[in-house]
Specification:
The chain is an alpha/beta fold. It is built from seven helices and ten strands. Helix 1 packs across helix 6. The longest helix is centred in the first third of the chain and has 12 residues.
Length: 207
Amino acid sequence: MIAEFLKIHPQNPEERKINQVVDVLNKGGIIVYPTDTIYGIGCNLMNRRAVERLCQITGVKPQKLNLSFICYDLSHISKYVQRIDTPTFKILKASLPGPFTYIFESNSNVPKILGVNKKTVGIRIPNHPIPLEIVNHLGNPLISSSIKDDDLIKEYTTDPEEIFEDFKHLVELVIDGGAGGNIPSTIVDFSEGDPVVKRQGLGDFNF
């Protein structure tokens, strides 16, 4: 198997191509795609076999799964987290879409999806038209991880053609949405109550 290499306009994604990506996801395929930070690798959250394959490719045991959900909007998020109080909702509204991964206590939908009892879930709404249009057309989130490079000098690969060379035998589709960034999202943990910055990345969390 050699992955398809699909060029999609980063500002105005062509609907025909987005539908092509969604078709791959609905068939259990794994895709590599751009975000507002670094390129990600992901699959349809609702396809358990695809999630298992994603774990294999990224070298993660399902029990230790700390992958993010790529959501379309705030209503998407509320399906998977326990509760969002008013102050937290205001922070989300002010900062999303944006370069943040927010960790929340998960609700009962999440263990059922993953087959493992996950107490927390990471949520992303990237400020990038391609992943937003993909999850909008898909109708549910992608489950996703960052593309990391083996070269420690450049931790994150930014060139889609280079990514294609690395992943063409592992995934079904690599999207070329232009050069990616090399700074990951800022991770903020809300699961214990007050927000705690766990990793400082591209997003400046000052709420």
